[in-house]
Amino acid sequence: MGMKPLIYLDTCIVIYLVEEHPIYQPTIEAVLSDSFGVVCHSPLVELEALVLPLRLERNDLLAKFRIFFSINRSLHMPYEVFQHAAELRARFSLKTPDALHLGTAQYHGCTEFWTNDDRLRNVAGSLAVNVCGGMSKTTLSS
Known about the structure:
Number of strands: 5
Largest sheet: 5 strands, parallel
Helix content: 55-70%
Shape: globular
Structural class: alpha/beta
CATH architecture of the domain at 6-76 and 109-132: 3-Layer(aba) Sandwich
Radius of gyration: 15 Å
Order of helices and strands: EHHEHHEHHEHEH
Distance between the termini: 47 Å
CATH topology of the domain at 6-76 and 109-132: Rossmann fold
């Protein structure tokens, strides 16, 4: 029996889950319940997700994020991730954080990269999965 597939969660997906987004959370949880992979994130996901709760001094939300991060696998970001991210950024004009997320997922051999960002889907090909069902942020706000 082989290892379980690794599923890298983009920051937006983690935020939707932890903050219990009324539209996205149920969809993501349904996909998670059908998944048999190991849920992963990077230190960059932690950094990005914790900024707003820290800024707002929302200790309740900080605690929820810390629990989430403690029960899922954190993937380290060695030098090679940054080198690969530079190549992704140069080749596809990605923003630095997006290149680092994708570079981390690829470095660790993740089988899926869950996001709600179609730009990342366009670069990552079949690795990227829009688990929010193609609902964009602009669609929701109109």
